[in-house]
Design goal:
single chain; 262 residues; mainly beta; Methylamine Dehydrogenase, Chain H; Neuraminidase; 2 domains; 4-stranded antiparallel sheet; YVTN_b-propeller_repeat; Host-pathogen_enzymatic-act; WD40/YVTN_repeat-like_dom_sf
Length: 262
């Protein structure tokens, strides 16, 4: 899920659609048909980008007209998606690659090999960070040269990745932990225990929020002390996003989204 500055966008995996939600009224204002099994969403400042796991494609959506304006073929089983200010980056789970897309021409301009089964992707202002689920690592990519410049070992089966402005935060699903990485030294500087099977992670400007799918909770972490300061019970959480005021959590299986006031 993602916030475009006005609306929340949530993927509906089994329906092959994306829901657009008004964060004030909490109403679904549009439902957009995309490819098969949509997974993640990103906003590039103009358009919404959605990875279609079952189609091997990425859908580009105009958030005003709610129309799909382009469909880009990438690698097999695309999952994560992020914008670096110039390009769109998509993780391709099965081939262990990341596709770099020009958002204007909607074409793939580079394919970067990373670890086994990449899922999450984020941009820290300088580098692209990718979680490699089956390798237990995170790849750091230079978005100019498209080269992997570092590989950082984290916990078991990392999924989500987010930036707090200083550090990289990675959820380790089968460890029940979150790794904090210094992006300069590429060292893990802290490991925080959260709930079971943590998946997505987001930063609200002050705190880190982690969805614990196996526990049905969301953990709130102080990024300075590395302490869990609150645990919020929701549904079966997977995705998480911040709209500037609230935390939004997508709940797997129930077809719902939880809104948490920060």
């Amino acid at each position: 899920m993602a916030f475009d500055g006005t609306n929340i966008w949530v993927t509906n995996y089994s329906s092959g659609t994306v829901s657009k939600i008004d964060p004030v009224s909490n109403a679904v204002t549009a439902t957009v048909a995309v490819g098969a099994n949509p997974r993640e969403v990103a906003f590039d400042g103009t358009n919404i980008w959605v990875t279609n796991d079952g189609s091997g494609t990425v859908s580009k959506i105009d958030p005003v007209s709610n129309a799909v304006t382009a469909t880009v073929t990438v690698g097999a089983n695309p999952i994560g998606v992020a914008f670096d200010g110039t390009n769109i980056w998509v993780t391709n789970y099965s081939p262990g690659t990341v596709s770099k897309i020009d958002p204007v021409t909607a074409t793939v301009t580079a394919t970067v090999t990373v670890g086994a089964n990449p899922i999450g992707v984020a941009f820290d202002g300088t580098n692209i960070w990718v979680t490699n689920y089956s390798s237990g690592t995170v790849s750091k990519i230079d978005p100019v040269s498209n080269a992997v410049t570092a590989t950082v070992a984290v916990g078991a089966n990392p999924i989500g990745v987010a930036i707090d402005g200083t550090n990289i935060w990675v959820t380790n699903s089968d460890s029940g932990t979150v790794s904090k990485i210094d992006p300069v030294s590429n060292a893990v500087t802290a490991t925080v225990t959260v709930g079971w099977y943590p998946q997505a992670v987001a930063f609200d400007g002050t705190n880190i929020w982690v969805t614990n799918n196996g526990s049905g909770t969301v953990s709130k972490i102080d990024p300075v002390s590395n302490a869990v300061t609150a645990t919020v019970t929701v549904g079966s959480p997977i995705g998480v996003a911040f709209d500037g005021t609230n935390i939004w959590v997508a709940n797997l299986g129930s077809g719902t989204v939880s809104k948490i006031r920060v």
